[in-house]
Design goal:
The protein is built from twelve helices and eight strands. The protein is α/β, with parallel strands linked by helices.
């Protein structure tokens, strides 16, 4: 079985990478989870997982005529398989985003849950591929009009390629009143239910500096518990691994956003 989720937001600053890893660690208590940093232009998952000094990253898998096996970029961390992406501008320029289809297909053959940490904006082919390849999206939002608007754009684009919405996750919440004001409205426009509401927390930035996911660094924190509750509300579907891999390999790659 396997299901691929794109964790997306439409804007930066929502805590998307923190959310991806937190959901991944929580889901890994029940499933075999693989997390991929699919933000090939502005990668930072490697800093959250203590992998900033590794030799092989997703960039190496996306360069044509380079004989790098997918397994070389997969690292065991915090109960998950983690595929980080590098931060080199030269490597980004050399990478062919279309090759992500084959990488994801190979990974899908050997895991239960794929979480694709997606770029913040839909500005290029590499940016939109995760939501095109995924089965469903988890949309990470803050309770502001710009965040909701950008999140809706991501959902609309994803749906145009048949990608459903698994749910919405409100993150970095400073005032519960803000959430009360927008949750009902958000649920009317977004395809999935509200998975959770995660409070703003200093330990999230502390965890990043320590090179650990939040659920490893501060497992008893209020934010960590909120992420675990959100993960428990995700109904993982049992797709056939070979069928999913074939679909990824043959996925339509959009030429324009």
């Amino acid at each position: 079985m396997v299901e691929a989720f794109a964790v997306a937001s439409g804007k930066g600053g929502t805590g998307k990478t923190t959310s991806t890893l937190a959901l991944g660690m929580a889901l890994a208590e029940q499933y075999d989870v693989t997390v991929v940093d699919a933000d090939t232009g502005m990668a930072n998952l490697l800093f959250h997982t203590g992998l900033d000094d590794v030799d092989v990253t997703l960039h190496d898998l996306l360069v044509e005529d380079v004989a790098t096996d997918v397994s070389a970029a997969v690292y065991e961390r915090f109960g998950m398989h983690v595929v980080p992406c590098g931060t080199s501008l030269a490597a980004f320029r050399a990478a062919d985003p279309e090759r992500l289809r084959g990488v994801v297909a190979d990974l899908a053959a050997d895991t239960d849950v794929l979480l694709l940490d997606s770029p913040a904006a839909l500005g290029s082919k590499s940016a939109v591929l995760p939501v095109v390849l995924a089965d469903r999206t988890v949309v990470v939002l803050q309770p502001t009009i710009p965040s909701l608007s950008d999140g809706l754009k991501v959902q609309e684009y994803a749906r145009s390629y048949g990608t459903e919405t698994a749910g919405i996750l409100f993150n970095r919440i400073r005032d519960d009143a803000d959430v009360d004001r927008v949750v009902d409205r958000a649920e009317r426009y977004f395809g999935g239910r509200t998975l959770g509401v995660v409070p703003e927390s200093d330990v999230a930035s502390d965890a990043r500096r320590a090179g650990e996911p939040l659920l490893s660094y501060a497992p008893e924190s209020t934010a960590a518990e909120a992420f675990r509750d959100a993960a428990a509300r995700i109904d993982v579907r049992a797709g056939d691994s070979e069928d999913v891999a074939d679909r990824f390999r043959s996925a339509v790659v959009p030429d324009e956003v």
